[in-house]
Amino acid sequence: MNWIMIVGIVILAIVVVVIVAGLFFFLDLMSYTATGSETLTPAGSPAGKALVVYDPGASGAGKSAAATMASTLQSKGYTVTLAGLRSPAAANISGYNVIIAGGPVYFGKVVGPVEAYLKGLTPQKDVKLGAFGTTGSAQFNDADIASVGKQIA
Prior knowledge:
It contains five helices and six strands; from the N terminus they run αββαβαββαβα. By secondary structure, it is α/β, with parallel strands linked by helices. It is elongated, with a radius of gyration of 19 Å.
């Protein structure tokens, strides 16, 4: 009787872990931790202002990719605001020459908070927009790229 109870507990534990992991990814709970922001100032006189908004995702890859883009823009002379998706800085898009936003792509789908942010953008004329996605896969396939493009357009 004891071994049946042990097997039942193990199966129950596995089911709970799978459910929690599913909620973690599909509800994108990590986006709620993206509340901070920082400003990166160029060495010389600024060439413009850029806003880089990220959802960190489960692994933090979204934040890492955004930080790399922010650093590159800073090296090109931009004053860059690197902002978590849920930060006040991400909500204020006025005054920027460049806005880039993104985060994780799970199973070919952009996470809901990133999709909503991108679709809700109403930038001023002449603002350059960019979007990025991170994935646990070694490469994107053409179907994933097309799917992401449809979701954020």
